[in-house]
Amino acid sequence: MLNDLWPLANLSLETPRLTLREPDEQELAALAAVAARGIHRPEDRPFLTPWTSQPPEARARFVLQSFWTARGQWAPEAWRLSLGVFREGQALGMVGMRAHDFRTLREVTTTSWLGLEHQGQGYGTEARTALLALAFDHLRAESALTVVFQDNAGSQGVSRKLGYRPDGIQRDVLEDRVVISDRLRLTRDAWAQESRAPVRIRGLEGCLPFFEGEASTETG
After folding, report:
1. What pLDDT, on a 0 to 100 scale, did the predictor assign at position 99?
2. Which of 13, 66, 93, 171 has the fewest CB atoms below 10 angstroms from its CB?
3. How far apart are CA 153 and CA 44, in angstroms?
4. Could you give the CA distance from residue 14 to residue 175 in angstroms, rounded to a whole number?
């Protein structure tokens, strides 16, 4: 009955090495444990919301609450897809894709994090590619955005490798100081110009009204 009422629980994105899907409660606890062990060096500050600077238990709790909030506040007019990243059942991290007025704007914003022990192995690029395949090839997005601190070399590298281009800057306040991020945009045309490893998407048809409303139909 849960999967009938919440078809997003059936959605999965499969790459050659990874599976992206909504976690069940046990898997969510495993993802929280990954965050508790750390997702960056202590001196780094990769996110505007400084949740990763909190103690391990607070980081783990943040992962739980963020996932529950994304589910609880979902609406076709403003949604946030939050998926666990798994390799052979092992929890590696999480990715997110959010949008507002998607049916009109056709624009998404992506986010991600991986456990420190899983970084540097290409999983971040592979997971982001899966999200973008969903957005461009199946949900008919026209562009994808990401906002990255200028000194976040890892995320900058993933974005540019995938074809994102500069789209201005964003100024915010972090711990009472101004921080500047690069805003990067990937267009549908740029996405279509590159060949990539295949992404298999399962369980999408029943989810389409959640992304656009009842008039939605699958294409791509």
Report:
1. 97
2. 171
3. 11
4. 38
